[in-house]
Write a structure and sequence with these properties.
The complex is a heterotrimer. By secondary structure, chain A is mainly α. Chain A contains 11 helices and 2 strands, in the order ααααββααααααα. Chain A is about 70% helix and about 5% strand. Chain A is globular, with a radius of gyration of 19 Å. By secondary structure, chain B is an alpha/beta fold. Chain B folds into 2 domains: about 210 residues, 3-Layer(aba) Sandwich (Rossmann fold), CATH 3.40.50; about 150 residues, Rossmann fold. Chain B has 13 helices and 14 strands. Chain C has a 6-stranded mixed β-sheet with strand order 6-7-8-3-9-10, sandwiched between helices. Chain C is globular. Classes of the chains: A mainly alpha, B alpha/beta, C alpha/beta. At the A-B interface, α1, α9 and α10 of A face α3, β7, α8, α9 and α10 of B.
């Protein structure tokens, strides 16, 4: 029983780390640009295909591919912000939701058209490596994904806290008009935020590729999960995102193990609805700006 | 002005529709509505299924069609249940289609066939396996492929007759666990399994439902591990089949696995898992590594598939639809090219083929419910990257083995 | 240095400014007077480029700036301390000040500027690692002005500087403004304490319903203040402006 509990906790944390990383990008884009990007998971999907093709055609290791994929996703994010979002920024929240949903559909159908519905996976020497750590078993690529997520969070945190640009991102998240008065070029900060958020989704895709498969609709569930995590942790709160991501992973695994796997999704969606009802700002949320995107 | 323009546009469209109306074309061509999920999450096997039917159509047309008339598919994409129902209705009422085929997915089949049956239109299911499809008393719904309970019967017989003796156990000592995705498909199949396992006296130790869209199945594996089964019987779609196998390995669960078609038969299952897939059993539609003396026409189909689509078939779904479509074309021919539901039903019920004559090896014999009871699923095993038929003997190309 | 000529600004249908003109010279303190809704805040926003002027011109050192973006105007040294302080409440005092020096021009001299601000408002030095949102009203205003100074302004525009502050603090803020002007920075001040601001200002501009009704030396206007109090009085009552 003890071993089972411990294993469930470890497995839950490992999967939660990736959820948190997915949510971080969504939350960054939300906090700064004030839009909910419904194509977030699809950006991850694009990155997964990129990893697959780099591996299949050029034999590039998935973890090395991040050097190409993360910048590419950054540029894709910048492009989306510049070409899709900027022209309609300031129009109704519904309009912006439609726009990102449209991006999602376009990306999915493009993937379906180019690569069909096949499940694409990469097999590396470490794909199935398992660490025997006494009472628990730990999958090596999952551990790497978890550790990399935590490191990225630390990096993101330091970046936002200690660099001028990071502070400017936070300033724009809080008050874009005043930020302009500081001489901060808000439009550029939007591009940066969308780029960074997309790159984070891309890195999540890279980290998952050694143990997951790419297919056109793989992103959908992750968009949903990231959204749940962001709402639980609080819109605009990075600390909340880490905690909520790990919490969702734990809830999923623990309820799945000790109640039934059939209810694990119900468990965190239930929590999600409860939080929306009693504490819409989330665990750590600022609660500001949510009305702008049509949540209140 | 704007309004007048709109009205004029509508009129032109109506006129165009009249000119292209089915009545005008019906003399030359036999029009069949083909409803498959070709976008969305079911797209992979939906497309695969359609390809099989499409190859049969092309082949038949090249051979002169049905009584000299060419066959035309009116294709419809049905990514979900609502689309399946509305597309069936649209094909019937707006396109004037009198016979429909489809659909790969049981949920889609239920919706589309019901829409057809309510209008008295014939519906041939060529790939979905839920028993319920042919158990609703509809006189115009038929199915050429085996049902879920036929899968389960083959699977459990394999456990009792081959696996238990192989492990040196009596059937009642064989610890069996079921892991199934929790949609109608997985749930109904799992329920059949439970009953069949009990009937055969197997020791059922655990049943674990889960959502096929799950991103993580560690909790399923942990619960299974706690029950220490000899064999896990799984009902899975594509992504979850891979995830189950991978996470079982990650969490140290070493039981034998027997899949139930679906995800366990896909080439992507092996591509994703490599060595982890070795030795996994599966019960499924006829696959390509099979004794071809039992499946005449299979090699030709495979070649044609490669030539048409530029790749290997991804699963046996295309083959099943290919066989089903040919059976349907034969039946239409026996009705003298008429699509009249009563004539079709009469020719269907009187049409019989012995096993080992068609590309799937399946026999053809329809019962009163419209089900082809001559179709039998086969047991296959992943061996060196190929899904090889291992049981029953007359279809096998290799003997089954337990791989540690 | 700054010349505002006949500018008009509308928010949709609503005409906030119809005809505003005045000027600010090097090292001068000019105050904008008028009742709530007269257009004081809008005038500052038009100068800092947050709202576009529909007509009229704003020139700075002889060159038109009313078509420039807000970000470019800051670069020129025109800095706007907005009404309600506009601090980034979730950032620390120090971070707020640092962001004040965001422009390339100001960033080079950020540490020097920081020392100067801490000299002017020593309390900010003590509070530097606190969240700006947790400061008292007076400290927030100091932080906002300090942040404005971080941008190395040649013209500092302060909106409703003493709104909601206790009299002692109001006194302090005025002293600080005096020091800023003596250091050679021009100040354009919007204030509710009319007597006080008129006393320290060089010139004053009176706005009424979005137009300049008087612009001249503060001393002359001070003599007429009893005459004007009819509508200036309302502003002394406090409350938020437009």
């Amino acid at each position: 029983m003890f071993e089972l509990t411990l294993q469930a906790i470890v497995s839950g944390l490992l999967v939660g780390g990736v959820y948190a990383l997915m949510a971080a990008g969504l939350n960054l884009i939300f906090g700064v640009v004030r839009i909910i990007n419904f194509a977030h998971g699809d950006l991850m999907m694009v990155a997964m295909y990129a990893v697959y093709w780099l591996f299949t055609l050029s034999g590039i290791d998935p973890y090395v591919a991040v050097l190409v994929v993360a910048p590419a996703l950054f540029l894709l994010g910048v492009f989306l912000q510049r070409v899709v979002i900027r022209p309609i920024q300031g129009s109704s929240p519904l309009m912006i939701i439609f726009a990102t949903v449209a991006v999602s559909l376009v990306l999915q159908n493009l993937a379906l058209m180019l690569f069909q519905g096949d499940f694409r996976s990469v097999q590396t020497s470490y794909s199935i490596a398992v660490l025997d750590a006494g009472p628990v078993l730990v999958s090596v690529p999952r551990l790497i994904a978890f550790a990399a997520s935590i490191l990225l969070f630390a990096g993101l945190f330091l970046f936002l806290r200690y660099t001028y640009v990071g502070k400017a991102l936070r300033a724009v998240a809080e008050n874009r008009t005043v930020a302009r008065l500081m001489g901060i070029r808000v439009e550029r900060i939007y591009l940066l935020a969308f780029g960074l958020g997309s790159a984070l989704a891309g890195i999540a895709g890279v980290l998952m590729m050694p143990f997951a498969s790419a297919y056109p609709t793989v992103g959908t569930i992750y968009t949903l999960l990231a959204f749940v995590v962001v709402v639980l942790g609080g819109l605009g709160s990075m600390e909340g995102t880490v905690v909520a991501g790990l919490a969702v992973g734990l809830i999923e695994t623990l309820t799945g193990t000790f109640i039934s796997p059939a209810v694990k999704e119900i468990a965190y969606f239930g929590l999600f609805i409860v939080i929306l009802l009693i504490r819409p700002q989330g665990f750590f949320g600022l609660g500001k700006g949510t009305e702008e995107v049509g949540l209140k | 002005m704007k309004r007048a323009g709109t009205i004029a546009g509508v009129l032109i469209l109506l006129l165009g529709a009249l000119l292209l109306s089915p009545a005008a074309l019906a003399q030359q061509e036999i029009r069949i509505g083909a409803i498959y999920p070709r976008s969305g999450s079911l797209a992979l096997l939906g497309e695969e299924s359609w390809r099989g039917a499409e190859i049969a159509r092309q082949e038949r047309n090249e051979a002169g069609g049905i009584l000299g008339r060419q066959i035309v598919f009116v294709n419809a994409d049905a990514p979900n249940v609502n689309a399946a129902r509305s597309e069936a209705e649209r094909l019937i009422s707006q396109q004037g289609v009198q016979l429909l085929i489809g659909t790969y997915s049981s949920a889609l089949s239920m919706a589309a066939s019901e829409a057809a049956a309510r209008r008295g239109v014939t519906f041939f299911e060529l790939g979905a396996i839920s028993d319920g499809i042919t158990q609703r008393g509809y006189k115009t719904v038929f199915r050429t492929n085996p049902t879920a309970s036929m899968f389960v019967a083959a699977q459990m017989a394999f456990l009792r007759d081959w696996m238990a003796p192989q492990m040196g156990k009596e059937p009642e000592q064989l610890r069996v666990a079921i892991a199934h995705e929790d949609s109608d498909y997985g749930t109904s199949v799992a329920e059949n399994m439970r009953r069949e396992a009990e009937r055969l006296g197997l020791n059922l130790v655990s049943v674990q439902p889960y959502s096929s869209t799950s991103t993580d199945l560690s909790s399923v594996i942990l619960r299974l591990r706690a029950a220490s089964p000899d064999v896990i019987v799984a009902v899975s779609y594509a992504q979850d089949a891979i995830l189950l196998q991978r996470q079982a390995h990650e969490l140290g669960l070493r039981s034998k696995v027997v899949g139930t078609g679906g995800g366990h038969s896909l080439s992507s299952f092996y591509e994703a898992l490599g060595d982890l897939a070795e030795g996994v059993f599966n019960v499924d539609f006829t696959q390509y590594e099979v004794n071809t003396a039992f499946t005449p026409g299979l090699e030709e189909f495979r070649e044609r598939y490669r030539a048409t689509f530029g790749e290997e078939p991804r699963s046996g779904h295309s083959l099943a639809n290919y066989m089903g479509a040919h059976v349907l074309f034969d039946i239409i021919e026996r009705s003298g090219g008429s699509l009249d539901p009563e004539r079709i039903r009469a020719s269907t019920l009187s049409y019989v083929v012995r096993p080992g004559q068609l590309a799937t090896g399946w026999g053809v014999r329809f019962d009163e419910t419209g089900q082809n009871v001559g179709a039998t699923p086969l047991v296959t095993q992943w061996r060196g990257g190929k899904l090889v038929t291992v049981w029953p003997e007359q279809a096998a190309v290799m003997a089954p083995v337990l791989i540690e | 240095m700054l010349k505002v000529e006949h500018i008009a600004v509308s928010y949709g249908e609503f005409e906030a400014l119809t005809d505003v003109s005045f000027e600010v010279n090097e090292g001068e303190l000019v105050t904008l007077l008028g009742v709530n809704g007269a257009g004081k805040t809008t005038t500052l926003r038009a100068i800092s480029g947050i709202v576009p002027a529909r007509s009229g011109t704003i020139t700075y050192d002889g060159r038109p700036i009313h078509k420039l973006e807000a970000e470019d105007i800051v670069e020129l040294g025109i800095v706007h301390v907005p009404e309600g302080r506009g601090l980034f409440g979730t950032l620390t005092v120090r971070e707020n000040l640092e962001l004040g020096a965001y422009t390339a021009r100001a960033r080079r001299r950020a540490s020097e500027s920081m020392e100067m601000v801490f000299q002017l408002f020593p309390v900010l030095k003590q509070r530097q690692s606190q969240l700006a949102g947790s400061l008292s009203g007076g400290e927030q205003q100091m932080c906002a002005i300090g942040r404005g100074l971080m941008a190395r302004p040649r013209l500092l525009m302060i909106d409703e500087m003493s709104l909601g502050l206790a009299p002692v603090l109001v006194q302090k803020m005025f002293e600080a403004v005096g020091q800023i002007v003596r250091a050679g920075v021009s100040v354009l001040l919007v204030e509710q304490h009319i007597r006080h601001s008129i006393r320290i200002a060089d010139r004053a501009c009176v706005l009424e319903k979005g137009r300049t009704v008087k612009f001249g030396p503060a001393r002359e206007l001070a003599d007429q203040i009893h005459f004007q109090s009819l509508y200036l009085g309302a502003a002394a009552g406090g409350g938020s402006s437009e």
